[in-house]
Amino acid sequence: MMRALIVDDEIYARQELETLLKETGEFTIAGKCANAFEAMQAINREKPDVLFLDVQMPVINGFELLSMIDEAAMPRVVFVTAYDEYALKAFEENALDYLLKPVEKGRLAKTVEKLKKRSAEGGRPVFASPAIQKVPCIHSSKIKLINTAEIEYVRSGETGVHVISPAGEFYTELTLQVLENRTNLIRCHKQFLINIDLVDEIILRENMLADIKTKSGGLVPVSRRYLRLLREKLHF
């Protein structure tokens, strides 16, 4: 049995696809999500085998969502769309398959066979990873999008990953690895990323350690391992 996660902003589309997937006898439903942020939470929590992903969703679309998923947690992807023009784009993104709405049982059966064959082959899919321009964060029960240029630093701890900007501190489901690989933020510590453009001072400490003071007054540690890399990048 494959564990499937359904992501679609339309409730009836989610319900209809859930029914069709269960009828095949090949899936258990790991969850149903109404937007990309819910999907990131579910992917990190449930580790589904396959993602049935709507292309057109508000705020963050299906293609953008893929760039925000850690490669180690990436499921196989089947795009679900009402627009045939997205079929080519889906395959450019290395999706295993695409389904046109309304989903037909016969067409879904072909997708199931592709999924079973690919699962037997093993490995994880690799998608193009465009730069992330806005980081989705939780703020007062809402999703707040923070421009990467406005992020001063990012920290990771027991409570998760937090983005710090002049507007405040916000929780995000994106991992440090994803943010390091797909934004202009650079690592200065195993638990911190920094925006070089918003650095005010670098305070050198003993034992090859340092602190970074941001333009708004935040203080970020620099470990011995990353101080050398920081020196090379900033030429000091």
Q: How does this model look, in words?
A:
With 236 residues, this protein is an alpha/beta fold. The protein folds into 2 domains: 2-121, Response regulator (Rossmann fold, 3-Layer(aba) Sandwich); 134-234, Beta Barrel (OB fold (Dihydrolipoamide Acetyltransferase, E2P)). The chain is built from 7 helices and 15 strands. It has helices at residues 11-24, 36-46, 62-66, 86-92, 105-121, 176-182, 224-234, and strands at residues 2-7, 27-33, 50-54, 76-81, 97-100, 134-139, 142-147, 153-157, 160-165, 168-172, 186-189, 192-194, 199-204, 210-214, 219-222. A 5-stranded parallel sheet has the order 2-1-3-4-5, sandwiched between helices. Strands 10-9-8-12-11 form a 5-stranded antiparallel sheet. The protein is elongated, with a radius of gyration of 20 Å. 34% of the residues are buried. The mean pLDDT is 91.
Please list the strands of the largest sheet in the order they lie side by side. Answer: 2-1-3-4-5
Order of helices and strands: EHEHEHEHEHEEEEEHEEEEEH
CATH topology type of the largest domain: Rossmann fold
CATH architecture term of the largest domain: 3-Layer(aba) Sandwich
Largest sheet: 5 strands, parallel
**Approximately what portion of the residues adopt beta-strand conformation?**
25-35%
Structurally, how many domains make up the residues? 2
What is the CATH H-level superfamily of the largest domain? Response regulator
Rg, Cα atoms, Å: 20 Å
Mean pLDDT: 91
Cα distance, first to last residue?
Answer: 56 Å
